Amino acid sequence: MPVRRVVTGNADGKSRVVSDDAFTSTKWCQLWMSDEDDPDGFDPGQRMLPIEVSAGSTAFRIIEILPKADLQVLLAERPSMADMFDPEGFHVTDTLDYVYVIDGPVELALDADSVVLQAGDCVVQRRTRHAWHNHNDHPIRLLGFMVR
User: Fold this and answer.
1) Are 94 and 52 in contact (CB under 8 A)?
2) pLDDT of the residue at 20
3) What is the pLDDT of residues 53-77, one digit of tens each?
4) In order of start, what are the domains of the chain with their CATH numbers?
5) Which pLDDT value is given to residue 51?
6) At a CB cut-off of 8 Å and minimum separation 6, what does 34 contact?
7) Is 61 exposed, middle or buried (0-12, 13-18, 19+ CB in 10 A)?
8) What residues contact 127, with CB distance under 8 A and at least 6 apart?
9) What pTM does this model have?
10) Residue 26: pLDDT above 60?
């Protein structure tokens, strides 16, 4: 499903739309980022960026959670990603993440317990070890905003 992104800005003393575009791939869709040098943010483009954002930065993205079998294949094909995740997909990021579940159900697994989330549910992920498990036969999308 395409994602439309509208970006506003100021020109000639008036607020206006400065871009209105669509993304056709949402596997790892970087919608917008900011950092200490550019607090209003910038378009990171469609390239794959690290999961982590640097100190003083934010990332606004759509992430596709693959079914487990597809995730195992992806991790085998991309050794750099396998270094960030254990075999069950667990990882830790040094960010405060606000996550909105676009599609569901999806399981958020933690060390001590887990919770199944449905479309419309929200998560505040606070620098904890976690994994997203998709028990469906199709990808699930999450909208995430990462702050560091």
Assistant:
1) yes
2) 93
3) 888 999 999 999 989 888 777 777 8
4) 3-147 (2.60.120.10)
5) 74
6) 40, 41, 42, 57, 58
7) buried
8) 92, 93, 94, 95, 96
9) 0.84
10) no
What is the SS3 assignment for 54? coil
Q: Which residues pair with 22 in a beta bridge?
A: 4
Which DSSP letter does residue 67 get? B
- Other Cβ atoms within 10 Å of 134 Cβ, number: 22
And the tokens for 147? Answer: 């702050």
Please state, as a whole number, how many other Cβ atoms lie within 10 Å of the Cβ of residue 117: 20
Distance in angstroms (rounded) separating the CA atoms of residues 23 and 5: 8
Peptide bond into 67 cis (omega under 30): no
Beta bridge partners of residue 28, listed in sequence order: 63
Q: Does residue 148 carry a pLDDT above 80?
A: yes
Cβ-contact 141, 64 below 8 angstroms: yes
- The percent of residues above 70 in pLDDT, for the chain, comes to 92
Tell me the per-residue pLDDT of 131-140, one tens digit each, with 9 for 90 and over.
999 999 999 9
Strand partners, 48: none
